[in-house]
Design brief:
The chain has helices spanning 29-40, 50-76, 83-98, 117-126, 143-160, 176-190, 204-210, 232-247, 272-281, 299-315, 331-346, and strands at 14-23, 104-113, 131-136, 165-168, 194-200, 254-259, 286-290, 320-323. By secondary structure, the chain is of the alpha/beta class. Mean pLDDT is 92; it is low at 7-11 and 348-354.
Length: 354
């Protein structure tokens, strides 16, 4: 994807940056080593003392996980390369086209890997951008995504000696455009099947750090209402209930779980792999799974759910498991993203200080 093709003019004064999480450059062990080392060395991702994190990442996780992850990535790598990079680049192109008349210069970057945030910020500065809107492409708030991204942007701006007016689009977990864009991709698959909304898991301590009062909520089977503004788990439940409402589903037709846990530390529950076993034991045979903590299909959706967990469910006696695509570069989603950016550019905005 060519980045310079979607800038409106060299005299632009307003700019916006789409930021997704990241992806390795290629599905090889060496590329995964580089990517995992950068990703897992982030103190907002593995928040333990630096010496312990260095040993854990470089002596345990990276050596043993890189070959397995490379094999998994090869299973989803397409003609366009990494699905996450392809869909993010395509979303950028479609959103930029929708912003053409607004005069807002649009670029995109990854928190980890390539294309990097630093070069994107340099391009914005070279265009004379004075007001920069950031859209972290994470529907729900989490320390390991939103906080990490904003901290990194502020660090880079400080190193550059550049101080544009920053505006940040907050997590869009209940944005009507996002909810309907995702629901519209589930609807054709649903029929009379059970819907499982599987979100990416995070350690419980990340919840209690951002929302200390949520500690008593974590043992519960569900978050009945969103009481804490920065509670990732509560925001996930809110997203799930809104999608189910858009689809007209009663509580018996859908359930919520969390995938992709790592290590022995307590992670938020219920776990997706365990919940699939529970659904099978209840006699659920036909299942649709959606992953609305992601806006772009990636390893966690296409391989973890679409391959491994499908095999698990079928082995438990299931008849079908259909994976609903993420919102990706759909017209409904790119239109929603353009509206978010234009609205933020016209509002007071939020300083990027988290």
């Amino acid at each position: 994807m060519k980045h310079d093709a979607r800038f409106q003019s060299a005299s632009a004064r307003r700019g916006a940056l789409l930021i997704n999480l990241g992806t390795p450059d290629e599905p090889t062990t060496s590329a995964l080593r580089r990517y995992l080392r950068e990703f897992l060395s982030d103190p907002d991702v593995i928040d333990i003392p630096a010496p312990l994190r260095f040993l854990l990442v470089n002596c345990v996780i990276v050596p043993f996980r890189s070959p397995k992850s490379a094999h998994a990535y090869r299973a989803i790598w397409g003609q366009n390369g990494s699905p996450l990079r392809h869909f993010t680049g395509s979303l950028h192109e479609k959103t930029a086209a929708a912003l053409q008349a607004s005069g807002i210069a649009l670029d995109w970057a990854m928190r980890y890997g390539n294309p990097g945030i630093g070069p994107a910020l340099e391009r914005m500065r070279s265009l004379g951008v004075e007001e920069l809107t950031l859209l972290p492409l994470y529907p729900q708030f989490a320390q390991s995504t939103v906080t990490s991204t904003l901290t990194h942007v502020n660090r880079l701006l400080s190193q550059m000696g550049w101080s544009p007016r920053l505006r940040v689009i907050e997590p869009f977990y209940r944005d009507p455009g996002f909810i309907e864009a995702q629901a519209s991709l589930i609807r054709p698959l649903l029929e009379d099947k059970h819907l499982l909304l599987s979100f990416h898991g995070i350690p419980e301590r990340h919840i209690t750090r951002s929302s200390p009062d949520c500690g008593s909520c974590l043992p519960r089977a569900a978050c009945e209402k969103l009481e804490h503004a920065l509670c990732y788990r509560g925001q996930c439940y809110e997203t799930a209930h809104l999608i189910a409402r858009a689809l007209g589903l009663p509580p018996s037709r859908y359930s919520i779980s969390f995938q992709s846990r790592l290590g022995r530390t307590p992670w938020i529950r219920p776990f997706t792999d365990h919940h699939l076993e529970e659904l099978a034991s209840r006699g659920v045979k036909r299942l649709v799974v959606t992953c609305p903590s992601f806006v772009s299909d990636c390893l966690e959706t296409l391989e973890e759910i679409g391959v491994r967990e499908r095999e698990r469910f079928m082995g438990l006696g299931g008849e079908s498991l259909d994976l609903a695509p993420c919102v990706n570069d759909s017209e409904a989603w790119s239109s929603t993203v353009a509206k978010m950016i234009m609205k933020e550019a016209s509002d007071a905005g939020t300083p990027a200080t988290q």
